[in-house]
User: Which sequence fits this backbone?
């Protein structure tokens, strides 16, 4: 299962709500240097979750792919990795 880690999302644009295609994920806040501790979040049965650090509301959308977001561009990819 190499290469199949927990997807990370960021909210550098300051959106109120970001729809994502997974229910378990990491929020990093914004792109560095404005990020916060990378926190693991699980929506459970609720279908949405608020990040306790940046207050972004993430909402599960089963029509989206694993790292696809609505609005687009909120998937985070560590350039150092």
Assistant:
């Amino acid at each position: 299962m190499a290469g199949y880690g927990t997807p990370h999302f960021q909210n550098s644009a300051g959106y109120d709500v970001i729809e994502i295609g997974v229910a378990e994920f990491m929020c990093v806040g914004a792109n560095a240097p404005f990020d916060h501790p990378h926190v693991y979040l699980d929506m459970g049965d609720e279908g949405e979750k608020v990040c306790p650090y940046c207050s972004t509301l993430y909402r599960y959308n089963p029509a989206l792919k694993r790292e696809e977001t609505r609005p687009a561009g909120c998937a985070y990819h560590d350039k150092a990795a």
Remarks:
- The mean pLDDT is 93.
- DSSP finds no helices and seven strands in the chain.
- Strands lie at 8-9, 17-20, 24-27, 39-42, 48-50, 57-60, 69-70.
- The longest strand covers residues 17-20.
